[in-house]
Design a protein that fits this description.
4 helices
Length: 107
């Protein structure tokens, strides 16, 4: 990770920068009107985005084509953890086929 962030790498071991993401305007009223196909992934041990918040957003989404994946034993950094291949396969399947494990709507 540090190799991809030349500035953060100079801050010392164990430091990783994360972007600040504004959340204003991204609320139930807005997402209920969204029709874009959506794949959402949550990790059971995510401390940056609480899994319940992801499930709440999923429930509020207006899209008929939406899938949520719960990566048990994973955190917000799932792409570097044990279940990373499940995450990669699900992402690739969604992008190529609009489905994960043959499902285009559901969890």
């Amino acid at each position: 990770m540090l190799a991809s962030d030349s500035v953060g790498a100079t801050w010392g071991a164990g430091v990783r920068r994360a972007p600040a993401v504004p959340t204003w305007g991204f609320n139930q009223a807005v997402v209920s009107k969204m029709q874009t196909p959506f794949l959402m992934v949550t990790g059971a041990h995510d401390k940056q985005v609480a899994p319940q918040r992801v499930r709440d957003l999923y429930a509020d989404l207006g899209s008929k084509e939406k899938v949520i994946i719960d990566l048990a034993c994973s955190s917000h950094n799932a792409m570097w953890e044990r279940n990373h291949l499940l995450l990669f396969k699900a992402s690739l399947d969604w992008l190529k086929e609009g489905k994960v494990n043959g499902v285009s709507a559901g969890d």
